[in-house]
């Protein structure tokens, strides 16, 4: 079974001791490729360097909503410069996060809009982070629009109605470890509502491990457990689910 992890942070310190060994095991674990995601300009540079080092790793460059209040005036130019590297396949993660509000809503909105426009200008897909801000994010996406390739709402956490609205805009829905949590009935309903043709698998590693590994560091190979849960929810063959979600990931990021 082969699969993709469309949202990882393998350059984070959590992987410092065994990163190389972990990545070398990707082929034997079924990991076809990983999108390693940047959260600010300097972090995006690290994501790019990791992608350049390993064949199966690609990356995105962007500013997370938590970091929106810290951007420098030339941050967009620096992100655009990074996109000249051939392993950069997306802009993000960008978006809105009203759960913690580490940056003001005004800063988050401004930086989200600017990155959306950059993604459209460069025609790169966009990786979107939304938490407790689905209405505002939907409004912005509806007004500005998406790049031709679309994008993904990463770590989706709203209900089925919202999921379908974002799918109609042209976005995939990112499904990871939380779908395996027994009490997360809402996310299981989202999977049923949108179907595998609109789903991307992800870990958000080192965070959000599947239920069987709660309390441990998440890793790209654990996508297997996410696929098994999706297959169970949809009453589909897990190999078929893996094939379709892998094709979705290739379509968005590598086509």
From TrEMBL:
Source organism phylogeny: Bacteria, Thermotogati, Thermotogota, Thermotogae, Thermotogales
Name of the protein in its database record: Hydrolase, TatD family
Positions bound to a divalent metal cation 1: 7, 9, 93, 204
Superkingdom of the source species: Bacteria
Pfam families in UniProt: TatD_DNase (PF01026)
MF GO annotations: DNA nuclease activity; hydrolase activity, acting on ester bonds; metal ion binding
Keyword check for Metal-binding: yes
Cellular component, GO, one term: cytosol
Record key words, sorted: Hydrolase, Metal-binding
Residue numbers binding a divalent metal cation 2: 129, 154
């Amino acid at each position: 079974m082969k699969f993709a992890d469309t949202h990882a942070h393998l350059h984070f310190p959590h992987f410092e001791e065994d990163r190389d060994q972990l990545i070398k095991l990707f082929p034997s674990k079924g990991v076809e490729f990983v999108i390693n995601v940047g959260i600010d300009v300097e972090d995006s540079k690290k994501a790019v360097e990791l992608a350049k080092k390993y064949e199966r790793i690609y990356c995105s460059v962007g500013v997370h909503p938590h970091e929106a209040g810290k951007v420098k005036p030339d941050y967009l130019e620096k992100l655009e410069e990074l996109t000249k590297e051939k392993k950069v396949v997306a802009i993000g993660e960008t978006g809105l996060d009203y759960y913690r509000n580490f940056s003001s809503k005004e800063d988050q909105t401004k930086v989200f809009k600017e990155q959306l426009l950059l993604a459209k200008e460069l025609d790169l897909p966009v990786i979107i982070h939304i938490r407790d801000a689905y209405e505002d994010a939907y409004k912005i996406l509806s007004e500005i629009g998406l790049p031709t390739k679309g994008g993904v709402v990463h770590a989706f956490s709203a209900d089925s109605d919202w999921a379908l609205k974002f799918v109609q805009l042209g976005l995939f829905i990112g499904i990871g470890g939380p779908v395996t949590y027994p009490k997360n009935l809402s996310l299981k309903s989202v999977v049923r509502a949108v179907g595998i043709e609109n789903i991307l698998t992800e870990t958000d590693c080192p965070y959000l491990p599947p239920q069987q590994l709660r309390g441990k560091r998440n890793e790209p190979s654990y996508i297997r457990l996410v696929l098994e849960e999706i297959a169970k929810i949809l009453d589909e063959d897990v190999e078929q689910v893996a094939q379709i979600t892998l094709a979705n990931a290739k379509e968005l990021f590598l086509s």
